[in-house]
Specification:
Length: 72
Amino acid sequence: MSMAVAGLLAGMALGFAGYFGGFGAFLLVAALGAVGFIGGRFLDGDLHAGDVFRPRDRDERGDRHDRGDRRR
């Protein structure tokens, strides 16, 4: 399935949830879709737990950098 078709299906699901269930259902479907997407990426091996939980001021080797070093 292409990403365009997946996006179409996700948009239709959100549209139906918003129309029939209201804004609360829309937000619930969107949040659960995001959780499912992250879980799927994790199970496929495209996303690793260290990518999510690593502090932003450290690089892959664990060295600390201030924000000025990243802009160069």
